[in-house]
Design a protein that fits this description.
Strand content: 5-15%
Structural class: mainly alpha
Order of helices and strands: HHHEEHHHHHHH
Number of strands: 2
Low-confidence stretches: 1-16
Strand order of the largest sheet: 1-2
Length: 274
């Protein structure tokens, strides 16, 4: 009696159903750990060149980071004027709100989002919901990028900081929107794979630029990193006079929380899907 062959699934090995999937997740974790954490510490000059190889993924992290600041400001009663991106990174233009929550929205927002994506990727019935939420998030980001076009400079003097060239940043959310729509038509296996890749990238994005968490010195624009601003809120020192050891303590705490969220999400993603 002839045996019946099952059709080959090109992403079966990368799904949640076997050793291949576990190897993929763990390998992805190892690659970004090497690129965004180990190499910058050992070979900072060479690591900077490698950053450009992962630039699209870094900008995804910047997008989630800045949107985290903006949405946290809204949730805590503040204002979210607009969001801009350029070659040097991004900025969420906000005012008011709980400063500690606004800072944490950027420092932990990507890792929280990434961990949630990893966890829901194991639930087949929630995949479509996850992609709808992602779609709404990317559309929201695009809206806040074009919002200055509908603002009056007489009402919002801060609008002087915005330039039309910032509209070039729309390439990212528009690309993400198109990708999300296409993936909503893909198989469950592909949807899980992409969600989990995005989740790991988001969890690691806090370390994709040395100025993100571990930059103690003032940035090029004269301001300080989010981690240093956050540390100053919970210490008796000003942000300018913050001792290095105090900064290291808070930066390490934020890093540990990012890793914990990554571990939580990956631990759940390695299980058999429901």
């Amino acid at each position: 009696m002839a045996s019946q062959q099952m059709p080959f699934d090109p992403v079966h090995g990368a799904s949640n159903r076997g050793l291949g999937h576990r190897r993929m997740l763990l390998s992805l974790m190892a690659v970004f750990f090497l690129l965004w954490i180990v190499l910058p510490l050992l070979l900072p000059a060479q690591a900077y060149l490698l950053y450009w190889l992962t630039a699209p993924l870094r900008y995804l992290g910047v997008f989630v980071h800045e949107m985290g600041h903006g949405l946290a400001s809204l949730l805590s009663g503040g204002s979210f004027y607009w969001f801009q991106m350029d070659g040097d990174g991004g900025a969420a233009i906000t005012s008011g709100g709980w400063q500690s929550l606004v800072l944490l929205g950027g420092l932990l927002g990507p890792a929280v989002s990434g961990s949630i994506l990893l966890m829901v990727s194991t639930r087949a019935e929630k995949l479509r919901i996850a992609y709808l939420i992602l779609l709404l998030f990317f559309v929201c980001g695009a809206y806040y990028m074009i919002k200055p076009l509908f603002m009056s400079s007489s009402t919002y003097p801060i609008l002087a900081q915005w330039h039309a060239t910032h509209l070039l940043g729309l390439i990212l959310p528009v690309s993400l929107i198109l990708m999300t729509v296409m993936l909503m038509r893909a198989s469950d296996a592909w949807q899980r794979l992409v969600l989990q890749c995005l989740g790991i990238v988001m969890c690691y994005s806090a370390f994709s630029d040395t100025s993100y968490i571990f930059q103690y010195e003032a940035l090029r624009n004269g301001m300080y990193s989010d981690a240093r601003e956050f540390a100053a809120l919970f210490s008796p020192f000003s942000v300018q006079g913050l001792p290095w050891l105090v900064f290291v303590f808070f930066a390490a705490l934020i890093a540990v929380l990012n890793f914990a969220l990554l571990g939580l999400g990956v631990g759940r993603a390695l299980r058999k899907p429901a």
